[in-house]
TrEMBL record:
The keyword Endoplasmic reticulum does not apply. InterPro entries: AAA+_ATPase (IPR003593), ABC_transporter-like_ATP-bd (IPR003439), ABC_transporter-like_CS (IPR017871), P-loop_NTPase (IPR027417). It comes from Rhodococcus pseudokoreensis. GO terms for molecular function: ATP binding. This is ATP-binding cassette domain-containing protein. It comes from the Bacteria. Gene3D superfamilies: P-loop containing nucleotide triphosphate hydrolases. PANTHER family: OSMOPROTECTANT IMPORT ATP-BINDING PROTEIN OSMV. Coiled coil: none annotated. SUPFAM superfamilies: P-loop containing nucleoside triphosphate hydrolases. Pfam families: ABC_tran. Keywords: ATP-binding, Nucleotide-binding, Transport.
Amino acid sequence: MITFDKVTKAYPDGTTAVNELDLECPSGKITALVGPSGCGKTTSLRMINRLIEPTSGTISLDGESTADMDPALLRRRIGYVIQHAGLFPHRTIVDNVATMPKLLGKTKKEARTRAMELLETVGLAAHFADRYPWQLSGGQQQRVGVARALAADPAFMLMDEPFSAVDPVVRSQLQDEFLRLQKEIGKTIIIVTHDIDEALKLGDQVVVLRTGGVLAQAATPLELLTEPADEFVADFVGRDRGYRSLGFANLDGRVETVAEPVARLGDSASEALARASDDWLLIVDPANKPIGWVQPANVVGSIRPDDVNLSGTVADAHGTMRALLDAALSAPSKRGVVVDGDGVLVGTVTAHAAVAAIESADLAGAVAR
Ligand SMILES: Nc1ncnc2c1ncn2[C@@H]1O[C@H](COP(=O)(O)OP(=O)(O)OP(=O)(O)O)[C@@H](O)[C@H]1O
């Protein structure tokens, strides 16, 4: 746990960057710090590893005040990732990552082995190891930055706009990979971003700061979307927050599926027609995993892959309300297909039933707002 206790940073010119900040960042979780430009996000982050010293107040790691720690030793306990990765330009990728293991006393060979493992962990192929940073794309450099921050196996990670220098597609991939990685490594992470969508996607806890470094709200993404503390947070979180909150509302137990008649590729048109409850019939594979929808009336002979309409999305029974609604709206039959964790058909749900489930759930207020 990283704890801020009445932490203030005032610069000599009179700017108060952070003002009496009280905050708890739980162990093994991601805390996303977000807010308008100049609200003190980076200052808050850099006070944790003492790149900036607080004017007053205390920051502690697992109850131990950082003020009492040797700054160099403190920084070894905390991985630090910055925008543009900040790699050493004249060192190869593997040497960039091996720097910390070497500092910690590993031999050259051990450090290289560790660095190669870390590059694999962050999804970089071994052939990148002997390149220089300028020979990598922005997204690949960010991965190296993460690998380097993990090299000392720190319990804590600080990340300052780590994904903002890459294009939106790569950014989204890096975010997904990062979430997968965090499931394995379970570090205590604070990530700074100016992008509320990134904060909501990555943060277990999202902390909104307002100008002057004042805490506006610290909450889960769902709470922030459904119960913004005030007008400032509501505006910052955005207009379609009711709809977006569905992306954080789990389906478990909130919606009942209806059994759906099915057919298989190769079944005859007449069989399919007899089985269908309306114009559309769901096609499944031999393992009962949905493939798509056919209109039996348009099938000549037996059902072939070309007859199948693939436009509908599929919702996981343990996924989100948003995915369920999307499945219902995107299916040509208007019945959203729900599957279990193995992709096997559970049943279908109409948009009407999905909305009814949303209205009856705790989310009702947020959706209506
Ligand atoms: N060395 C300094 N001297 C005076 N003021 C400073 C100094 N460093 C930062 N500030 C001010 O402190 C405030 C907070 O800066 P900080 O970099 O923490 O904001 P931020 O939320 O990370 O902003 P951004 O999203 O634009 O990066 C700003 O008003 C900034 O101008």
